[in-house]
Amino acid sequence: MVDAVDLKIIRMLEEDGSLPFTKIARKLGLDESTVRKRVLSLKKSGVIRKFSIVVEPAKIGFNAVALVGVDVAPDKLLEIAERLAQMPETRYVVTSTGDHMIMTEIWARNSKELSQILSEKIGAIEGVKKICPAIVLEKIKG
Could you cite one Gene Ontology molecular function of this protein (predicted)? Predict the structure, then answer.
């Protein structure tokens, strides 16, 4: 069970995943070993799945980012989601309710490459019915 202290640790690590346990402990008034044990427990229980970094796509040459809704044949939903997840251009893939069955974020070097990914890669997957891209202008949070 996650308690208030665990939530504080989680929030601190969400802000900076490289934050040393000693700094977290100092800010929360805990021993470093207590923080270490709590983080290990959070990882073991699946609350914390992994530590990662946040990259600015344009700084590494990806100047076209799109959030893409994909509608598919219902019997192909998981199969297509898995295929999208295998594509190196996808940053994340989720199944969803609402306007689209699958949502994904695509990074491309430019708009021409983005167009090719959408039409030649995603559009060519059997069972894909509709692709609805929205170009990301500016990321405010995340």
Answer: sequence-specific DNA binding
Architecture of the structural domain at 58-135: 2-Layer Sandwich (3.30)
Please list the rounded mean pLDDT of every run of 10 residues in the chain (142 residues).
Answer: 96 95 97 97 96 93 98 97 98 96 98 98 98 95 78
- DSSP per-residue codes, 53-84: ----GGGGT--EEEEEEEEE-GGGHHHHHHHH
- Please give the pLDDT value at position 66: 98
> Which pLDDT does position 20 carry in this prediction?
97
Instruction: Return the DSSP state at 16.
Output: -
* CATH of region 4-44, choose from 1.10.260, 3.40.50, 1.20.1250, 1.10.10: 1.10.10
As a whole number of angstroms, the distance between CA 17 and CA 122 comes to: 33
Token pair of 136, please?
Answer: 């990301």
Give the count of beta carbons closer than 10 Å to the beta carbon of residue 127.
15
Taking each helix axis from N to C end, the angle separating 32-44 and 21-28, rounded to the nearest 10 degrees, works out to 110
